Hints:
The complex is a heterodimer.
Chain A: E1 4-9, H1 16-26, E2 29-34, E3 45-48, H2 68-78, E4 83-86, H3 88-95, E5 102-104, E6 112-120, E7 136-143, E8 147-149, H4 152-160, E9 164-169, E10 180-184, E11 190-193, H5 212-225
Helix pairs in contact in A: 1-5
Chain B: H1 11-16, H2 31-41, H3 47-56, H4 59-62, H5 67-76, E1 83-85, E2 92-95, E3 100-108, H6 110-115, H7 117-134, E4 138-148, H8 154-174, E5 178-185, E6 194-204, E7 219-224, H9 240-243, H10 259-274, E8 280-283, H11 288-300, E9 303-307, H12 320-325, E10 331-336, H13 341-350, E11 355-362, E12 367-371, E13 374-379, H14 381-385, H15 401-406, H16 418-429, H17 438-441, E14 452-454, E15 461-464, E16 472-478, H18 481-486, H19 488-505, E17 509-518, H20 525-545, E18 549-555, E19 559-560, E20 563-564, E21 568-577, E22 594-598, H21 609-615, H22 627-643, E23 648-651, H23 656-667, E24 671-674, H24 682-687, E25 694-698, H25 703-713, E26 717-724, E27 729-732, E28 736-739, H26 740-755, H27 770-774
Parallel strand pairs in B: 4-5, 9-12, 17-18, 24-27
Antiparallel strand pairs in B: 1-2, 2-3, 3-6, 4-6, 7-10, 7-11, 8-10, 9-11, 12-13, 14-15, 15-16, 16-21, 17-21, 19-20, 22-25, 22-26, 23-25, 24-26, 27-28
Helix pairs in contact in B: 5-20, 7-8, 7-10, 8-10, 10-13, 19-20, 19-22, 22-25
Amino acid sequence: xxxxxxxxxxxxxxxxxxxxxxxxxxxxxxxxxxxxxxxxxxxxxxxxxxxxxxxxxxxxxxxxxxxxxxxxxxxxxxxxxxxxxxxxxxxxxxxxxxxxxxxxxxxxxxxxxxxxxxxxxxxxxxxxxxxxxxxxxxxxxxxxxxxxxxxxxxxxxxxxxxxxxxxxxxxxxxxxxxxxxxxxxxxxxxxxxxxxxxxxxxxxxxxxxxxxxxxxxxxxxxxxxx
Amino acid sequence: xxxxxxxxxxxxxxxxxxxxxxxxxxxxxxxxxxxxxxxxxxxxxxxxxxxxxxxxxxxxxxxxxxxxxxxxxxxxxxxxxxxxxxxxxxxxxxxxxxxxxxxxxxxxxxxxxxxxxxxxxxxxxxxxxxxxxxxxxxxxxxxxxxxxxxxxxxxxxxxxxxxxxxxxxxxxxxxxxxxxxxxxxxxxxxxxxxxxxxxxxxxxxxxxxxxxxxxxxxxxxxxxxxxxxxxxxxxxxxxxxxxxxxxxxxxxxxxxxxxxxxxxxxxxxxxxxxxxxxxxxxxxxxxxxxxxxxxxxxxxxxxxxxxxxxxxxxxxxxxxxxxxxxxxxxxxxxxxxxxxxxxxxxxxxxxxxxxxxxxxxxxxxxxxxxxxxxxxxxxxxxxxxxxxxxxxxxxxxxxxxxxxxxxxxxxxxxxxxxxxxxxxxxxxxxxxxxxxxxxxxxxxxxxxxxxxxxxxxxxxxxxxxxxxxxxxxxxxxxxxxxxxxxxxxxxxxxxxxxxxxxxxxxxxxxxxxxxxxxxxxxxxxxxxxxxxxxxxxxxxxxxxxxxxxxxxxxxxxxxxxxxxxxxxxxxxxxxxxxxxxxxxxxxxxxxxxxxxxxxxxxxxxxxxxxxxxxxxxxxxxxxxxxxxxxxxxxxxxxxxxxxxxxxxxxxxxxxxxxxxxxxxxxxxxxxxxxxxxxxxxxxxxxxxxxxxxxxxxxxxxxxxxxxxxxxxxxxxxxxxxxxxxxxxxxxxxxxxxxxxxxxxxxxxxxxxxxxxxxxxxxxxxxxxxxxxxxxxxxxxxxxxxxxxxxxxx
Lengths: 226, 793
């Protein structure tokens, strides 16, 4: 059966339709989820898309974290539901404490959109098992607040436990500590990624189709689990 | 009634005090205009009415100086069945397939962007997006032609970063890819930067909306943000202080944008359209409620009763004339069948947008507005919306034009040796107008919505609008104010030709035109002459190319003291392509592909980038326009693109062949070996700006078919070299060689040096200094801060 991947729309979500398209291209069935509806409709995994949820007022992701759907997602993630947060979704996951650390204003203080080189450091999460470890990919980055910050203990922990999923290469676009582009939780089912894999899924529209691997990975993960 | 109710002027009051002095001059109305208002009403206007007339009869809203000229766009336009809505609507709508239509328009937000660069630019984007939304379309992309003073001028350092951040801040937050535009520097824009914004949207043909307030009994609903004092006087000289000098201080007349509300407004409107819940819709932009109420009722020939107290306000102390004049952003006016009102309110609530019924449509032919139970406005709406004054202003050719045209750049000293040509090429590539614009464009999201096929720095932005069929559109906006200064008639045609060529170079068939006409004061006969000439040129050009103007915008009064900007007609061309898979990129990509030059090069250097950069010279006559040749070139480019004959195509314009080679080689880091045509002087070959030319690369095996295609169309074609994927250098045989690294350093270094280096390098493993912020130095062993708690740790 086709895996059902929920894509949440918060007020201010922008890349929700793009994420749904990526799920579809990967072979999954995108299921729209609504911020105010706690029901997850039995989805097999969830994507929190990019954008400016609730206008990014207060702090990016700070309000979205309290939405009805997030309560259900936090609970389900604890039970192993694969959850991917892209850009604003990553910020929401940090605010919801599903992932450690925080994403702050880019060091150079500008919004930055460019085709970014990444190295996949952990190819065993629910969302990256289709990559080779240390595989280099190109995925667009576009954010104003993508500078990953955490205290030294957290960073050391992430490094030691192999929880840094991807690092920026050939230039760090926002000043992230340890060149961090993506991290995972200890169980490997929750991943936050600052670049946008959903924008690298078609030859015509992306700088590569490397992003597709994120979405096919979760389908493989779900297939293997069944 | 308490005494406070008499602090505002009513219709009843106006009848009782016919001779009361009114500040019409301070509001920008002439005496004869004021007399006409009295004539229309048969009494003196109330304070609110006077405010409304002053706004609606302002240059910005009434086009009173430009109307007599703009008529040519309609009169000369080729008749097109594809046009579903044209001039006079919020934006022109063009049918691009059986069931899909596209709407696009460009507008200016020049003055606000000088006063407050970030908000001025941001609300410029917001305003044009609502115009597109009002036609029933989902906005799918934006573009922004920007013009600033000299790049190294102090004030440019204030204006440019703010404008760019504002365009990005608003557009990015709306989820609209920014797919192109212009960044131009010229001292003439010191004090008058031009911030133009273009938006394009897509709609099913049967979802086209209109602004007409039909159906007496239908409800008038205000949707979106609350109304505040921001933006009052944005379109006229209206300011609250004029009404009462002892009253509150003048408020800034620049609006403040909230893109988050606009995003919700977009989604809620699209849901309303999709479910067929509304009768009419109009955006609130310049002139706010005044414009929306009068235009919707005038368009339908109906009337309206509005209770202004129902308008949700940010500040309770606002006067009725302030509510009517406010230009608070992110608002739309809906006309709703009472039976569907609940559903409309429910949709708005779901998206978290305020929706309020503020009145209803009547059959009286009068717009009647009440405030605290008393009538403050009672006017025929058409008198505001349609019957404003129209002037045929005096015109005179600028006195200096003859001398200016006689001062030709062709007589200037020019580089002769290979070394000098090499230096000139590098100098031009590094000049502010020709250099890499990534410093600007990286602040814009070009990927969102997932349909961007091409974006800046490509010839055109290309957007896929149908994922099933691959149907797409291409858009380019161009203008060359130096050319327009030397010859406004041909300058406008040249802008049109360049945008048209750019759309074709990307592989699309040009379909329709929009324009933003930025000029000085219409009260200056020399400016008025420039304007009239430019409009005439653009209308003639569109007729010759067979594509209609579908809408546009006029921005006057771009002058500081008596010094006007160069006349700056900015022209946008929309093209369509059956399948975006056949789009043609601008950069050399295929190793050993043949490089060909299309069109004819003659010695045309006046007004050129070379004359400006190397001699600070502006004089002579701009390059000749040949629209017949442009049509042929476009046909060849489009057809060759569809047949796969082209691996790249790049239009030749500013900086000529030299700059096109710079951009084509650097795009994908592929070198080129070039042999300049023997019959041309090398300098002329490299730097002339003759029009109707393009630089293409043709994969081996396609050259014969392509050259035959050119011959069939009578288009001159010259093989000038080949792509070299290994050399990583631009080699011009017998003249010079430049490594791509040196070229790239020159081309990319300029804007970061001027506006601040944005490091692209990883900060070499910066030690995590956050510890010192979050953790006290003593004692050394402390837990992580609560904000960094990791539940999995």
